[in-house]
Amino acid sequence: MPMRRVAVIGGGLVGFSTAVCISKSLPRCSVTVIADKFTPNTTGDVAAGMLIPHRYPDTPIEQQKRWFQETFSYLLTICNSAEAADAGIHLLSGWQIHQTAPEEKFPFWADIVLGFRIMSMAELEKFPEHQFGQAFTTLKCDSQRYLRWLESRLRENGGQIEDRKITDVWELHGHYDVIVNCSGLGARALVGDSKLHPVRGQVLKVQAPWVTHFIRVSDGSTYIYPGMSSVTLGGTRQKDDWRLSTDATASQNILNRCCALEPSLKKAYAITEHVGLRPTRSAIRVEKEVLLRGSYQLPVIHNYGHGGGGFSVHWGTAREATHLVEELIASLRGSSAKAKL
Question: Which class is 4-337 in CATH?
Answer without folding.
Answer: alpha beta
